[in-house]
Specification:
The protein has 18 helices and 14 strands. It is of the alpha/beta class and about 450 residues long. The protein has two domains: about 240 residues, Type I PLP-dependent aspartate aminotransferase-like (Major domain) (Aspartate Aminotransferase, domain 2, 3-Layer(aba) Sandwich), CATH 3.40.640.10; about 160 residues, Aspartate Aminotransferase, domain 1 (Alpha-Beta Complex), CATH 3.90.1150.10. Strand 2 and strand 3 form a beta hairpin. Helix 3 runs antiparallel to helix 12, helix 5 crosses helix 11 and helix 14 runs parallel beside helix 17.
Length: about 450
């Protein structure tokens, strides 16, 4: 960052502080990870200079012979790793990729179905808060009282409403995704089945989560979560997808460009290619397996600390803590206090949410980034103890009923926790733990 330091000291200061924050904190947001320096080098390369609308061999600009090679390399690696027939690596991120699936398959007003947001689903799977819930007639399936996807309800809704597109995938669901069961529902109703594996794509490659390749017609994924790549996305068509619709690859490609996007981000495509190469190596399988081992160890230790978890555990990288027994809306206080202590996770709605998405009762956390640093089960037990201490620290807090009272109360609370000696003591323990597992040492501190 020396060039930026000399050119733009103000920007450099923010970047330096962010590096220090990452190095001295415990990053536990399950949709975040630490990518490799090789990926960062690709993303920060001269490839950012090129413009390449179109696809390999079919560009609208000249000078793309080497870009064609890079994109083709990323595609071939993805096809091999995910065992799919067609891959588009140009989507800018996960939400645009999902919108491009809609554009390829649906018209405005068509019926679509996905997992509800409060049950752990993603905004782009038809949430009323998303454009996908406004443009299309959205049917939402939920989880049962035990926190597992209600497959019987999903089948009943699909038979009654005959959606054109069904999503299976989530953003806050700690169990294995039932791809096979949803394939049966899609087959029975004639729907396209799209598997959004943005959270678990690295686990799929690593062999610790079942692949949707034999069940879904389309697979979408981001590339920056458990895959440990740059911020990007991919849309894939499976053999099952080709059997249902031989034109599906063309429809997907046309929906990405020119349907939704202009030129691809070639530097990101190179980063994806690099990440896929790294994911093909034996050590990545070891990493994926450790992510799940760490999540299970963390979940067990949290429950021993008296914290209730959705589904009483996890099968993947993600844990959803339900703080409703303490008080509805407790996720807001817990997230802010944990952040002050250097433990980063996000407040989240829980099944049967008694508060609101703005002041939810849960915490969503995961182990991908901690595992990338080299932490294992002993560290998960230590971290669970720190989390439990912070949650007990805020357990007497309650959200006022009035909107203005609530805003003022939270302002006062945030000012107070910045001065807390107890949280400062935990912060020191966090820094000591983080220093034992150095992050990007070549970048300095």
């Amino acid at each position: 960052m020396d060039v930026i330091k000399d050119l733009d000291p103000e920007l450099y200061g923010y970047m330096k502080n962010e590096l220090l924050r990452q190095q001295t904190s415990l990053e536990m947001i399950p949709s975040e990870n630490f990518t490799s320096e090789a990926v960062m080098q690709a993303v920060g390369s001269i490839l950012t200079n090129k413009y390449s609308e179109g696809y390999p061999g079919k560009r609208y600009y000249g000078g793309n012979e080497f870009i064609d090679g890079i994109e083709s390399l990323a595609i071939s690696r993805a096809k091999s790793l995910f065992d799919v027939e067609h891959v588009n690596v140009q989507p800018y991120s996960g939400s645009p990729a999902n919108m491009e699936v809609y554009l390829a398959l649906c018209n405005a007003g068509d019926t679509i179905m996905g997992q509800s947001l409060t049950s752990g689903g993603h905004l782009t799977h038809g949430s009323p808060a998303s454009a996908t819930g406004k443009i299309f007639k959205s049917i939402q399936y939920c989880v049962r009282e035990d926190g597992y996807i209600n497959i019987d309800e999903a089948r009943k809704l699909a038979i009654e409403n005959r959606p054109k597109l069904i999503w299976i995938g989530s953003t806050a669901y700690p169990r294995m995704l039932p791809f096979k069961e949803f394939a049966v529902i899609a087959e029975e109703t004639g729907a396209y089945l799209a598997a959004d594996i943005s959270h678990i794509s690295g686990l799929v490659i690593g062999g610790v989560h079942e692949s949707p390749a034999q069940y879904a017609h389309i697979i979408t994924t981001t590339t920056h979560k458990t895959l440990r790549g740059p911020r990007g996305a991919m849309i894939m068509v499976t053999r099952r997808g080709l059997e249902k619709d031989p034109e599906l690859p063309k429809k997907i490609d046309k929906s990405v460009f020119p349907g939704m996007q202009g030129g691809p981000h070639d530097h990101v495509t190179a980063g994806i290619a690099t990440a896929l190469l790294q994911a093909s190596r034996p050590e990545f399988k070891e990493y994926a397996a450790q992510v799940v081992k760490n999540a299970k160890a963390l979940a067990e230790a949290l429950m021993k600390n008296g914290i209730r978890l959705a589904t009483n555990g996890t099968d993947n990288h993600l844990i959803l803590a339900d703080l409703t027994p303490i008080a509805p809306g407790m996720g807001v206080f817990a997230q802010d206090a944990l952040d002050t202590a250097g433990i980063t996770m996000n407040k989240n709605t829980v099944p049967g949410e008694q508060s609101s998405p703005f002041y939810p009762s849960g915490l969503r956390m995961g182990t991908p980034a901690l595992t990338t640093r080299g932490m294992g089960e002993p560290e998960m037990k230590q971290i669970a103890g720190l989390i439990g201490t912070v949650i007990r620290y805020v357990s007497a807090r309650r959200l006022p009923d009035g909107k203005e009272e609530r805003a003022e109360y939270l302002r006062s609370f945030r000012a107070e926790i910045r001065k807390s000696r107890e949280l400062d003591d935990i912060r020191k323990q966090v820094v000591e733990l983080a220093r034992r597992f150095p992050l990007y040492p070549s970048l300095g501190t």
